[in-house]
Design brief:
homodimer; 219 residues; alpha+beta; Pnp Oxidase, Chain A; 7-stranded antiparallel β-sheet; two-stranded antiparallel sheet; 12 strands; globular
Chain lengths: 219, 219
């Protein structure tokens, strides 16, 4: 196996679009979801995100990164205006439509209409869900953190609502994403389905982790 | 398809471990890497993380979340002490060892020794890499952000060094993670290999995204 190495200087010397593609690939596989919002005038917006990060379970908090100078600014503005948004997992059946939401549509165009995805409205919830998604999350804005290092923003939010297929929920609370059809992505434009290798039991010193399928005692 | 729904109240009423398993599953598939550090006395530490998030490409920045009251506190202390650490992608060949680093070993035990993974030291780089990894990143600490909402911490860092298999690097800077053997994870304990569906061309309004394999013109 031939190994290629890069120093900090090498990375900074790369052509801009090449470097964006390269560095975006380096973290490994990523979550893939569509964030649904609506502005004060009722105009809906839908944008693909791959930076969902778990922050905590009690209360159920997560974060994601927004680039304010990009197509993501409509999402940001709507969240700050209305403090409510949705997160909708992407399935193989509509990943090209999800990708297409990253095109620079004018502000008065809804990415739902532009891409053919279906707005699903739930009573008492101002932000639109994606009907085609199987796992749908309703979230409330909690905090905006400015990342001074490069002008990006982290949005922190709390999960207020979840809708999912019942058969994807396992007895211990684990959600089987493959059963729900959720796919993953890499870099800026690569989409992947997954195949479970296994679940492992809770790790303890001096005990070799077991495959959960084979071990039925609790931990 | 039977749908199951949860309100905020439903989520907060779940038993603690069940809720942790549940909420950790909701974001979709996650990056999977081992963070290598060394304290001032030379003691190495290795911990599995799944919260790597891309922050920017110029400079190449990323972040990850640390829970200071958990097994992750050694990683945090070492990074704050030495300001340097490594990120190493996990392959199927050693995912059980990666999982095992999450056991609560005493501070004077190296998870390298405990799990059988091999410390790889590079000249001028104080933190240890994982020899078994194919994609290895050297990083410098840049900023610590305290998340007051639940007491977690986001570490921001800059990529200073990369080592990877040459044949995983595509002509446009995309890194083929499958060629490098990188796997993904879900929830707290589920490990998955991936299969590419396709790469899509850069999205533009009024153009249907193409499969990159079929389109050879640049964008």
């Amino acid at each position: 196996m031939n190994i290629i190495e890069y120093s900090s200087k090498d990375i900074l010397a790369l052509e801009q679009r090449y470097r964006a593609m390269f560095v975006n690939s380096l973290g490994g596989f990523k979550s893939l979801s569509l964030i649904g919002t609506r502005n004060r005038n009722g105009q809906s917006n839908l944008a693909v995100f791959n930076s969902f990060v778990h922050i905590g379970a009690n209360p159920p908090l997560f974060g994601f990164i927004v680039r304010p100078d990009s197509v993501e600014r409509h999402t940001l503005n709507n969240i700050l205006e209305t403090r409510i948004f949705t997160v909708n997992h992407v399935r193989k059946e509509f990943y090209t439509a999800a990708h297409q939401t990253s095109a620079r549509y004018p502000e008065d165009v809804s990415e739902f209409e532009a891409t053919g995805l279906t707005e699903e409205n739930k009573p008492g919830y101002y932000a639109p869900f994606v009907a085609e998604s199987h796992i749908k999350i309703g979230a409330s804005f909690r905090q905006k953190i400015d990342i001074a290092l490069n002008g990006t923003i982290m949005i922190l939010a709390e999960i207020m609502y979840i809708s999912m297929p019942e058969d994807a929920l396992m007895p211990d609370g684990f959600v089987d994403l493959e059963k729900a059809g959720t796919i993953t992505c890499a870099g800026l434009d690569s989409y992947h389905s997954t195949e479970r290798i296994s679940r492992l039991t809770y790790a303890k010193p001096d005990v070799i982790p077991g495959l959960m399928d084979n071990i039925h005692s609790g931990h």
